[in-house]
Amino acid sequence: MLAEDGVLLREGLIGLLERFGHQVVAAVGDAGALSAAVDEHVPDVVITDVRMPPGQTDEGLRAAVALRARRPGLPVLVLSQYVQRSYAAELLDSGDGSGVGYLLKDRIGQVEEFVAAVGAVAAGGTVVDPEVVRQLLRRRRDPLDRLTPREREVLALMA
Description:
By secondary structure, this protein is α/β, with parallel strands linked by helices. The chain has 7 helices and 6 strands; from the N terminus they run βαβαβαβαβαβαα. It has a single domain (2-158), classed as Rossmann fold (3-Layer(aba) Sandwich), CATH 3.40.50.2300. The chain has a 6-stranded parallel sheet, sandwiched between helices. Helix 4 links the parallel strand 4 (76-80) and strand 5.
C-alpha cells in the first residue's frame, strides 16, 4: 500500500514496485485515505510520505504512528525529504519495534536499495537512514552539556 500526495511520484513508485514483483493494493494521496485503505485492504507493508494533505506538515507520519498503535505488527516504511524527529522516534518505538523504516528520499541512491528496504520492512526488519539515526541521537544529548561553566554554577546555586 502506498500513500504519497505527489501524483507523479506515487505513480512512479507503483510502477517501480510492480516491476520488482510487488502488488500495490491501494495508492492514496492523503492521510485520511491511508487509514481507511489500511482497514479495507490489510496490506503487507505501508509506504508513506511524511507531508500530506490537508496540512502538508507531518500528517503521513502521524497516520503511520496511529496505524502501528492500532495494528502493532503492521510494517511501515516512511519516506521523507527531511527528518521529523518527534514522530520519527515515536514511529521507531511503535509496536514491538519490528517492521519499521524511515528513509530520506534524496539519499536513496539505487532502486535496488529501495526495493530491498521495502522487503526488509515487510519481513519485520528495521531500516533507518543513517542521517535519521544521527538526528535522533543528537536530540537525546543531555541539555546540560550545552551550558557554560558559569551557567552550571548558577543552576547549582538555584537548586
